[in-house]
Amino acid sequence: MAEAKRGEEKVIPIDGVPFDRETEPAQSASEDPSSGDSPAGGATSLAEEFEKLKAEKEELMQTMIRRQADFENFRKRTERDRLEEGRRGVERLITDLIPVLDGFDRALQGHEDPAYEEYRKGVTLIRKQLWDTIAKHGVQRIEAAGKMFDPNMHQAVERLETEEVPDGTIVSVFQDGYQFHGRVLRPAIVRVAVNSADGEASGRNVN
Q1: Confidence (pLDDT) at 86
Q2: Do residues 185 and 91 lie in contact, with contact meaning Cβ atoms separated by under 8 Å?
Q3: Could you give the angle at which helices 39-109 and 117-135 cross, rounded to 10 degrees?
Q4: Can you tell me the distance from the alpha carbon of 72 to that of 76, in angstroms, rounded to the nearest whole number?
Q5: Fewest Cβ atoms nearer than 10 Å: which of 16, 50, 146, 192?
Q6: Rg over CA atoms, the chain
Q7: Percent of the chain, pLDDT > 90?
Q8: Is 154 exposed, middle or buried (0-12, 13-18, 19+ CB in 10 A)?
Q9: Could you tell me the pTM of the whole model?
Q10: CA 112 – CA 22 distance, rounded (Å)
Q11: Which residues contact 189 (CB under 8 A, 6 or more apart)?
Q12: Largest CA distance in the chain
């Protein structure tokens, strides 16, 4: 009898709601909180995001490299322009000083008298100081005497017919020429030898 009574026991409701094990709804798969995006879909999304960030990083790196190259080119161009401007300023100054050298040369040539020996020494010293000052900035005297005539470096104002030296040889210099860093500031004014047999052809070459 006791076992029959236990079989007839009822479940006591909680808060007035009866509980029936047989009628308890099974949790549907759609209500499973763990049922969301699949793991494969999440991995694909992360991979795409990674590739996007990687591409953006590469683009930024390339942009930085280009900007750095542009800046380096700008710096070099600015430095080159600055040096060139400074060189042009020195060139203008030296061009103005060349006639001063000519004046010293004329003064030295015009006083061969031994009585002016002390004067000559003083003028020679001053000329040397002036020449040393401009020479250290890149000025060079154009070699002319005894050289072959070069229209890029020399200017012929006279011809001398002679067979003693080869045709086209510079036999005398009337005025020194100068160049600055390879650029001719003033050509040397010279007299050129012309062999009589080739006088006409040589005359055309030096004029």
Answers
A1: 81
A2: yes
A3: 170
A4: 6
A5: 16
A6: 50
A7: 25
A8: buried
A9: 0.56
A10: 142
A11: 154, 155, 157, 173, 174, 175, 177
A12: 166
